Amino acid sequence: MSNRVDLDRFRELQRLAYQGAEHVASRLEPGVSERMAAAALRRWLERHGVDDWFHVPFAWFGERTAFRNFRIPTQFLPTGRRLEPGMPYVLDAAPVMDGYVADIGFSGCLGGNAAWTRLDRDLSAHRAHILDLVRRRRTFQDIYRAVDERIKEQGRTNRHQVYPGRVIGHRVDRIRVGGPRLVVFDSFGLRTLRTIGRELVKERLEGRSPLWAGGRASAHPPTPGLWAVEPHLGTEDGTVGAKFEELLVVTEDDAFWLDDDLPHVHRWRAA
């Protein structure tokens, strides 16, 4: 479990990542492409001290926010899809600074879109729901299935099941400083992949997984540490998607969101 100083550093980086996403979102306009938005977010964060990447920024516009017809990993990469009025968007980035990691998802809409507003309202219910279930020490598998059931009750579709591994979350640890800072597969930092590999081996030996999904590997109580949690909802017709992603702190007997001073939390409270 990270100490208070470490948590402060993780929190500072998470806030910086969200500040970058807000900055880029405030400058989105019709004609901007996913590639342009993702590149702008990467430049902003690197100018503000980010020195490596858990994964580089992604941007998804329109029906791609719901991962419509996504079949292979390369479809997650930003494309030339251009933003239009009323179109939803998602910005997603996982920066690293001095070995500390953040992983954020920022949803919005360019102008008014009633379908997105209703979807965002439904998304808001999952933040408290997930925290409550973790605090009750339900297994990660049970929590995943409970979230899926809530999504169905809302008349929505589960879109995080499209992520590689069908994950709703993953473990976050400090990345070891040292070694080449390279991005591979146009997405993930090399040091990140090495860290993930070590964690997979270590956790599997202990009967756990650093990936939070709905399968048997997640049929264990919440593992103490930091978890990037990312529930992702879509409309039934697959044209609109929305998500949030932020760090959840799990202790031996409690859990809490690392920070409540985040854009989606303020938006939901204001609503």
TrEMBL record:
Residues 9-252 form the Peptidase M24 domain. Pfam families: Peptidase_M24 (PF00557). SUPFAM superfamilies: Creatinase/aminopeptidase. PANTHER family: AMINOPEPTIDASE, XAA-PRO AMINOPEPTIDASE P-RELATED. This is M24 family metallopeptidase. It comes from Nonomuraea mangrovi.
